[in-house]
Structures are given as structure tokens and as C-alpha cells.
Amino acid sequence: MKGSELLAEATATLTGAGVPDGGRDARRLLAHVLRVPPARLTLFLPEEVDPDLTVIFRVLIERRCERIPISHLIGRRLFYGREFLVSRDVLDPRPETETLIEAALSEPVSRFLDLGTGSGCIALTLAAELPNATGIATDLSHKALDVAFWNRNSLGLTDRVAFLEGSWFVPLARGQRFDLIVSNPPYIAYDEMDGLTREVRDHEPRMALTDEADGLNAYRQIGASAGRHLTPGGRLLLETGPTQAEAVSAILRAAGLGEVSVIRDLDGRDRVVSARRT
Fold this sequence. Notes:
Elements: H1 3-16, H2 22-34, H3 41-44, H4 51-65, H5 70-74, E1 76-79, E2 82-85, H6 98-104, E3 111-115, H7 121-129, E4 134-139, H8 142-154, E5 161-165, E6 178-183, H9 198-203, H10 217-229, E7 230-239, H11 245-254, E8 258-264, E9 270-276
Parallel strand pairs: 3-4, 3-6, 4-5, 6-7
Antiparallel strand pairs: 1-2, 7-9, 8-9
Helix pairs in contact: 1-2, 1-4, 2-4
């Protein structure tokens, strides 16, 4: 079959299965199978597709109909201009998290800490964008850290970021301090989980999504200890859900942090709460 015929077939299959924007997903998967840049796929559509590649493509379409995320099918996700390995063991990097990166880069940084690093996309992006900075990233999941280690090696940042296994600040040596602490913690409330898309609810690690409570427990834990690990004037940047900024701000003020403010993402939604050890 020609690429154009395969694409039409796949689009119809995905649309019939209720997958949103099936044509877009079909194009991304076909570009992946043919190993061509997605932007240049149109040039290859008139050509015949190898039968073996046709089989592979159709299998991927079937799995997408099961609502397995595109990133899990191709094993990669683009974040802040770099490709990261992803799997069902890590939270899929999302465009809105780039708001956190932009806020972090708005001031000089020499030493940073990323809490709950997952794929490592935040910590490794900071290291890549800040060539004179070094950092530590922690995560409770050994499987997530395996993914982060792979990404670190792929980006050539083995001497810039250290990964430690454990909950939040627990793996740190006594007295370690940072001029920047960042985190994208689990903030989905338990009663909101059923409202998530199947791609997220069924295929991303639950512990990275929810605290099984009101969605604020991680902020309480981080806020309570952040001051002891920040240098004077050091910043804390936390990604939040779009309705949580006020509650998270109150938590950080109660913990003794100052200059608390809210940063919106490109869609105008509250996305990052910033605070400082004054």
C-alpha cells in the first residue's frame, strides 16, 4: 500500500475508536515507522510502504486505539527542544511544565534540586540550559530513576546531575543547600482521578499523579522542609494544577517562605507558585 492509503486507513480506524484527533496521531506514528521527520511525511506518502513496516504501523494503530499514549508507543517525548526517553514508569513531560523551566531560568542558578524528578526532564533541561550549574534530583521510584539515568547519559550530563533514590529531601546529605529547588509533584486529588483521560489514568504512574487525598500533601511536605535546604535568597518553584495556586501559596507562607507569587502558563492558567527564603 502507498503511504497515503495507509494514512487514510489508520485515520479512519482511530476516529472510529473515538481517539481525539486521529489524523494527527496517525501521521505521527507513520512518520515514526518510516523514520522520517513528521514535517516531511507528505513527501513520502505517494511511495509504497514496505510490507513489514505496514504490519508494524497497523499494530501501533491498534495499540493507540487502546489509548496507549503516543509517547509510549514511540518511546520519546519532546520537552523544551530536547527528546527524552519515556515509559509508563514516568510522568509524560508536558508543555505546561516548560513554564517552570522559564521561571527557573529567569535568575542565575549555580546549584539546584529537583524533587520527584521522574524522567529527569526538568533537572536535565536546567543543566543543559545552565552550563555552569550542577544539581541533584530525587525520586522514590527506582524504575523512574532508570529512565532518568538513560536520559542523563543520552544528553551527556553525567557529571552535572546526580540522581538519588528516596522521598523528597530524605536522600540528601545533612546540610546540603541550593539556590533553586523545583518540583512538579503529584497534585491530582483522589476524587479527580476518574475524570482524567484514559491515556493518563491508565498508562502513567499513579504515584506521580495523585497523593490519594486532596492533591496538596506533596506541597505541605515540600514547604515544611524547603527552607532548611535553600540558601538565603534561594527560590522554590512548584508546578500546580490550575485551581491550586492560592492554596499552595498559603502553605508556603505558613511555612515561613516569602515573596510568594503565581506564574501563569501560555494559556493564562495559574501554573507555577514561586517563593523565596528571605
